[in-house]
């Protein structure tokens, strides 16, 4: 089972290394990881995707909560949430009919051509993991030259779905 964990952490040097090292030392594999600042410059949100049963998810969550720089952790997998992944892919696209076919697929998948070369196109596409995977499969026959992905980011739907970030305000002066 796939679990999406959202952790609010203090935005200080070494947090990512500390967390990833702790998870690796305990044998947990991170399928996807994305980190970025939040609306509060003193906080970052880390979105982890881990695979395992509920016990694995609970153990990862508990281990994360033990780290001093972690403000709070939630397994949002069972909640109503929006998830996105961003990908840049460079594909072989000679001029003519092949390039036109690729551009039509980009439009169908609501992607965007962000760079045009003599024999290749660079495409940006975002969406759910299944959409990204489907687009990759459609591009394979043309020849994928290079591919890079951000990892999943996710946010629970609704207003104020959790108060994790708010709890940090009490500790704001400590950072």
Residue runs with pLDDT of under 50 for 5 or more positions: none
| Mean pLDDT, all residues | 90
Highest CATH level, the class of the largest domain: Alpha Beta
CATH topology term of the largest domain: Alpha-Beta Plaits
User: Beta-strand level of the residues, as a percent range?
Assistant: 35-45%
| Gyration radius over CA | 19 Å
* CATH-defined superfamily of the largest domain: ACT domain
Strand element count: 9
* Helix count from the secondary structure assignment: 5
Fold and architecture overview:
The structure is a single chain. The protein is α+β, with helices and mostly antiparallel strands and 175 residues long. The chain has two domains: 2-79 and 158-174, ACT domain (Alpha-Beta Plaits); 82-149, Alpha-Beta Plaits (2-Layer Sandwich). The protein is 29% helix and 38% strand. It has five helices and nine strands. It has helices spanning 15-25, 54-65, 97-108, 129-139, 164-168; strands at 2-10, 30-37, 43-51, 70-75, 81-92, 112-116, 120-127, 144-149, 153-156. Strands 5, 6, 7, 8 and 9 form a five-stranded antiparallel β-sheet that branches. Strands 2-3-1-4 form a four-stranded antiparallel β-sheet. A hairpin with a 5-residue loop joins strand 2 and strand 3 (43-51). It starts with a strand and ends in a 7-residue tail after the last helix. The relative contact order is 0.21.
């Amino acid at each position: 089972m796939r679990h999406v964990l959202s952790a609010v952490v203090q935005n200080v040097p070494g947090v990512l290394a500390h967390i990833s090292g702790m998870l690796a030392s305990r044998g947990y594999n991170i399928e996807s990881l994305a980190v970025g600042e939040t609306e509060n410059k003193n906080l970052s949100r880390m979105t982890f995707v881990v695979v395992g049963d509920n016990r694995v998810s609970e153990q990862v969550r508990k281990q994360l909560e033990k780290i001093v720089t972690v403000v709070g952790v939630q397994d949002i997998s069972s909640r109503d949430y929006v998830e996105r992944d961003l990908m840049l892919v460079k594909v072989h696209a000679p001029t003519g009919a092949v390039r036109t076919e690729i551009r039509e697929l980009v439009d169908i998948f609501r992607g965007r051509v962000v760079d045009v070369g003599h024999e290749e196109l660079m495409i940006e596409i975002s969406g759910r993991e299944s959409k990204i995977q489907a687009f990759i499969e459609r591009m394979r026959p043309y020849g994928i030259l290079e591919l890079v992905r951000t990892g999943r980011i996710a946010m629970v739907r609704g207003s104020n779905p959790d108060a994790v970030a708010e709890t940090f305000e009490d500790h704001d002066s400590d950072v």
